[in-house]
Amino acid sequence: MRRARCSSESPGAPRSRAAFARNLAVAALSTLALILGVFLPGTASAECACLWQGAFADVQQDADVVVAGSVLRSKGNSLDLAVERNLRGDAFFDEIRIWMHAKDYCRPPVEDFPAGSRWVMALTRIREVPEDGFDPSTPNQSYGRMGDYFLPNCGGYWLTFSGEAVTGNLIDAPRWARDPDMQPVLISLIESFLEGRADRDALRAATQEDPALEDLMLDTRAFLRGDTQLEDRQ
Question: What predicted TM-score, i.e. pTM, was given to this entire model?
Answer without folding.
Answer: 0.70
